Amino acid sequence: MSGKSFVQITNDVSKGLEALRSEVPEAMQGFGAMAKGALKDGALSALHKELIALAIGVASRCDACIGFHVKALIRLGVTREQLMETLAVCAYMGGGPTLMYAAEAVRAYDELLVRTAKPAVAA
């Protein structure tokens, strides 16, 4: 098992993104506007668009992309089955190396779901 923590990865990358937002605000605002426009509900739901983004992150072997898109998917209510079917398509299209990063996306989901799950309230 890998020693990677997707919580730590996303926290660390977020710090770098904060510096970019501060030091090159116009470029980051442009990127943010593109992301917002691309990911909003339309003919495809926001959830389906995030699944596509995750698939590209897996195929590109981008740990931070996996972490951020899994977080977004959890927020959007992705089911484990939806995640797994998306990762199966990734593995089919990308072969063995992509399969290894599909496994990393499963680890990210498991780790981040635990971190974002709301505690049960006693009835």
TrEMBL record:
GO terms for molecular function: peroxiredoxin activity. InterPro entries: AhpD-like (IPR029032), AhpD_core (IPR004675), CMD-like (IPR003779). Residues 25-107 form the Carboxymuconolactone decarboxylase-like domain. Pfam families: CMD. This is Carboxymuconolactone decarboxylase family protein. It comes from Pseudothauera rhizosphaerae.
